[in-house]
Amino acid sequence: MRVGVLAYEGCLAAEIFVFTDLLLIANRVADGASTDPFEVSVIAASGSPVVAAGGFSIGAQEGHHDIDHLVVPGFELVPSEDPATRLSLWDREIDFIRACEARGVRVSSVCVGAYLLGEAGLLDGRRATTSWLYGADLASRYPDATVRTDSLIVDDDGVTTTAAFTAALDLASALVREHLGDKIARTTARITLAPDNRTSQSPYVVDSMLPVKHTQFAEAVGSWLVERIAEPYDLDQLSAAFRVSTRTMLRKFGDETGESPRAYLQRARVRKAKRLLESTDWPLGKILGHIGYQDPGTFRRLFADRVGISPADYRKRFRDGGTG
User: Fold this and answer.
1) pTM of the predicted protein model
2) CB contact at 8 A, 68 and 25
3) Which of 200, 244, 254, 299 has the greatest CB tally within 10 Å of its CB?
4) How many C-beta atoms surround the C-beta of residue 148 within 10 A?
5) Is 73 in contact with 15 (CB distance < 8 Å)?
6) Under the phi-then-psi rule, with left for phi > 0, alpha for psi from -120 to 50, and beta for the rest, what region is 15?
7) Under a CB-based contact definition with an 8 Å cutoff, are residues 205 and 275 in contact?
8) CA–CA separation, 318 vs 275, rounded Å?
9) How far is residue 107 from each of residues 130, 134, 204, measured CA to CA in Å?
10) At what angle are helices 13-29 and 182-192 packed, to 10 degrees?
11) Cis peptide before 79 (omega within 30 of 0)
C-alpha cells in the first residue's frame, strides 16, 4: 500500500506526522513481512520545503501519482474566518487531488482538509464529514454533498473524510485494520494509546460554539424555553406568551431555525445535562429534576441518541478533573 500525505502551505503538521508515524509503528508490529506493508511518503504539489501552520518547515517529495492512497490533512482555521480566503491559495493542490482521484487513487482527508476535496469536486454526490465545528459551513459550501457531522469517519466510493485533528489516528487505525487485520490494528492502538473504538464525534460537540443564525423571534422563543427548562413543555402556553397561534409558532420557529420548539428544548436540556454531568457529582435523578424530565429511561434514550453515548459514559469521559 503506497500512501502519499499531501503537505501544503498552512497545513497542520501534526495531522501529517500522527498519521505517518502510526503507520510506521504498524509496519514494525507487522514485522515478519518481506516488505513493509505501508510505503509512506510526504509529498507536495507546490514544491518543497513546505511551511506548515505555526511556521514549521516540512521536507516533502515532489508530488507524483505513483500512490494508491492520498491523504489530505487539514489547515489552520478559526470559526470566524471564511475558508475561501485560504482555499484560493491552493489551486495546485486542488488540481493534484482531482488528478489523483481521476487516476483511481483513493483519497482521504482529515478535518477541514475536506474543503480541499470539496473544491476538487470529490464531495459531490457523496456522504462526507469534517469537524463538527465546520459541518454546517461545509454543507452550505458544497450542497451536493451529504454532510454527517455526527460521524467520525465516512467512506463513500473511494473518498474518505474524517472528523477533527486526532481523527488522523482513527483514519490510520482504520487503514491498518483494513489491510493488516484486527490483531495488528489492536496491538498498534495499544502501543500508541490511540483510540480504537471511537465511532462518533457527537460526545465532543460544544453546542455553544456552533454557528447560530436565529432571528429576534427565534432567539426570544429560545430564551423563554431555556428560562423554564425544568417545566413541562407546553406548546399552548408558549404560543400564548408570544401571542400567536400554535400553528404560527411551529411554522415561524421552524422556518427560522429548522427545528421545532420541542426539539430546541430537548437540545437545551441535553446541553445542560452535559454541563451538570461534567461539573457535579449529582445522581442522574437530581439532574433530571433540573432539566424537566421525570423518566430516567426516556432521558437516557434521548441523551444516547443525541450524544452517542450514555449519561454514565459521558460523565466518565468528561468529568472535570477526570482522567478519561
Assistant:
1) 0.76
2) no
3) 299
4) 18
5) yes
6) alpha
7) no
8) 9
9) 14, 20, 26
10) 120
11) no
Which helix (H) or strand (E) element contains residue 146? strand 146-147
- Within 13 Å of residue 69, how many CA atoms lie on the same side as its CB? 22
Cis peptide before 203 (omega within 30 of 0): no
| C-alpha cell belonging to residue 317 | 469521559
Q: What are phi and psi of 101, to 5 degrees?
A: -65, -40
Q: How many of the other CB atoms lie within 10 Å of CB of 37?
A: 16
> Which residue, 137, 156, 122, 161, is CA-closest to 79?
137
pLDDT tens for the chain, 324 residues: list them.
Answer: 999 999 999 999 999 999 999 999 999 999 866 789 999 999 999 877 999 999 999 999 988 889 999 999 999 988 778 888 889 999 999 999 999 999 999 999 999 999 999 999 999 999 999 999 999 899 999 999 999 988 999 999 999 999 999 999 999 999 999 999 999 999 999 999 998 878 888 888 887 777 766 678 998 999 999 999 999 999 999 999 999 999 999 999 988 888 899 999 998 999 899 999 999 999 999 999 999 998 999 999 999 988 888 999 999 988 865 444
* Identity at 126, one-letter amino acid code: R
Contact 140, 158 (CB under 8 A): no
